[in-house]
UniProtKB/TrEMBL annotation:
<dbReference type="InterPro" id="IPR046342">
    <property type="entry name" value="CBS_dom_sf"/>
</dbReference>
<dbReference type="InterPro" id="IPR010766">
    <property type="entry name" value="DRTGG"/>
</dbReference>
<dbReference type="InterPro" id="IPR051257">
    <property type="entry name" value="Diverse_CBS-Domain"/>
</dbReference>
<dbReference type="Pfam" id="PF07085">
    <property type="entry name" value="DRTGG"/>
</dbReference>
<dbReference type="Pfam" id="PF00571">
    <property type="entry name" value="CBS"/>
</dbReference>
<keyword id="KW-0129">CBS domain</keyword>
<protein>
    <submittedName>
        <fullName>DRTGG domain-containing protein</fullName>
    </submittedName>
</protein>
<dbReference type="InterPro" id="IPR028979">
    <property type="entry name" value="Ser_kin/Pase_Hpr-like_N_sf"/>
</dbReference>
<feature type="domain" description="CBS">
    <location>
        <begin position="193"/>
        <end position="252"/>
    </location>
</feature>
<dbReference type="InterPro" id="IPR000644">
    <property type="entry name" value="CBS_dom"/>
</dbReference>
Length: 426
């Protein structure tokens, strides 16, 4: 193993949040500073480390790993616009919970735990107690912090921060950030469902090579790459049917769209369904081959994310909770957040109401995997706050692969909106 590879292996084994520097690597592994520097840059390109303005270069989670809803102390500092007074080494550590130290020291003890955050004012006793209990400390109000408290935070690598905002504002900001991170957790990315090691064909390969690879892997669709591993096409069993064994793949392949690992599954699902793609190549930043994602896995992941969702604070879910069923119709009371700046119901709220009613209508017919393809919405009257709307859906055409739903919306027996929605069913 070369020195370069040895350094990369060492970095890969470091704990998440551990600081990495040229000098520490050079001293520990007995290598030149230049060798350590080049290896650290390679680790950064691979996503093993990241450069943080406050804490320098630190070990981070590999890109593409399943995200979680927890925030790091470094992010908390950004959210609270806080100054880092000490404990920089712990900024990339994820915190578990936060508490407000507005109580007697005896009562504070039961709230202290490793990797938690204590929000406190100018109470030195609470600040010190929290740090000794392995809790990070965020001092609000911009109060001064004694040097011995800062020194202990540095010694233990536990973040000590100071914000000029009051305690209520800081706590509110952190709560809001936690809710947002929880929503982001439920958004599935391509990297989380892709097949990273599925074999690919070269553009100079032949139908014979395709048949051999299919026999070896039991797969019938493959990505095609050029000598630089850049994706140039996709070929399937249907493309090679009735072709001679010596026919080159580059004469038979198709040219589908590609996806990148950070794209959301929702963003590629409609493209795959609309274009009829069974697989979509996944590429790196330089468009080299990184893996594939299949249509069946995309649909399964979207359905699973709906069933396993841990949040009820998205706009869509808030709107859905306000829509009630009334026989063959649905009702919704117009609330202040649903109207625009002139007091009429907003097009966004009305469109979301229509989409939710359409989904529920198809759910009743046991057609769960539904993709909204287009919506033609016409507002024919004004709708104000506290108006009770009645929505009447009607499926006017339904096939195995699609449906058309007509929607009429009434207020006190007057029609105020009509919509026609086209859907794909998978």
């Amino acid at each position: 193993m070369s020195k370069h590879e040895e350094i990369l292996t060492y970095i890969e084994k470091l704990d998440i949040g551990k600081q990495v520097s040229v000098r520490s690597i050079a001293n520990r592994l007995k290598v030149a500073d230049g060798t350590a520097y080049r290896a650290i840059k390679e680790a950064e390109n691979r996503g093993l480390v990241a450069v943080n303005d406050r804490s320098g270069t630190v070990r981070v989670s590999v890109k593409g790993q399943k995200r979680n809803h927890k925030l790091t102390f470094g992010k908390i500092a950004e959210i609270a616009s806080a100054e880092i007074l000490g404990g920089h080494a712990g900024l990339e550590v994820e915190f578990s919970r936060f508490s407000i130290g507005a109580m007697q020291p005896e009562s504070v003890k039961k709230f202290l735990m490793k990797n938690s955050l204590m929000i406190v004012g100018d109470r030195k006793d609470i600040q010190s107690m929290a740090l000794h209990g392995q809790s990070a400390v965020l001092v609000t109000g911009g109060f001064d912090v004694d040097q011995d408290v800062i020194d202990y935070a540095n010694e233990m690598g536990i973040p000590l921060m100071r914000a000029t905002y009051d305690t209520f504002t800081v706590a509110n900001r952190i709560s809001h950030a936690l809710a947002n991170e929880l929503i982001k957790k439920d958004i599935i990315t391509v990297a989380e469902i892709s097949h990273d090691h599925r074999p690919a064909l070269r553009e100079e390969d032949t139908v014979k090579d395709f048949m051999e690879l299919m026999k070896r892997t039991n797969l019938s669709r493959f990505v095609v790459v050029n000598p630089h591993r850049v994706v140039v096409g996709v070929v399937s069993m249907r493309d090679i049917a009735h072709k001679s064994l010596d026919t080159q793949i580059n004469k038979l392949m198709n040219y589908p769209a590609v996806a990148k690992q950070k794209m959301t599954v929702a963003s590629i699902s409609q493209k795959m369904i609309h274009e009829g793609y069974d697989i979509m190549p996944i590429v790196n930043k330089d468009y080299t081959y990184a893996g594939v994602v299949t249509k069946s896995e995309v649909l399964e992941s979207l359905q699973r994310s709906q069933e396993e969702s841990q949040v009820t604070h998205t706009f869509s879910e808030d709107m859905s909770s306000k829509i009630s069923e009334k026989g063959s119709a649905y009702t919704v009371m117009v609330e202040p957040l649903m109207v625009n700046n002139v007091g009429n119901i907003s097009s966004a709220a009305l469109s979301e109401i229509v989409a939710i009613v359409v989904q529920r209508t198809l759910d009743k017919r046991r057609r769960r995997n539904v993709i909204l393809e287009s919506m033609n919405l016409n507002l024919m009257g004004t709708v104000a706050i506290d108006n009770l709307l009645e929505i009447y859906p009607k499926v006017i055409n339904e096939t195995r692969l699609g449906a058309v739903v007509d929607i009429e919306i009434y207020y006190v027996n007057n029609i105020i909106a009509k919509a026609v929605v086209n859907l794909q069913i998978t």
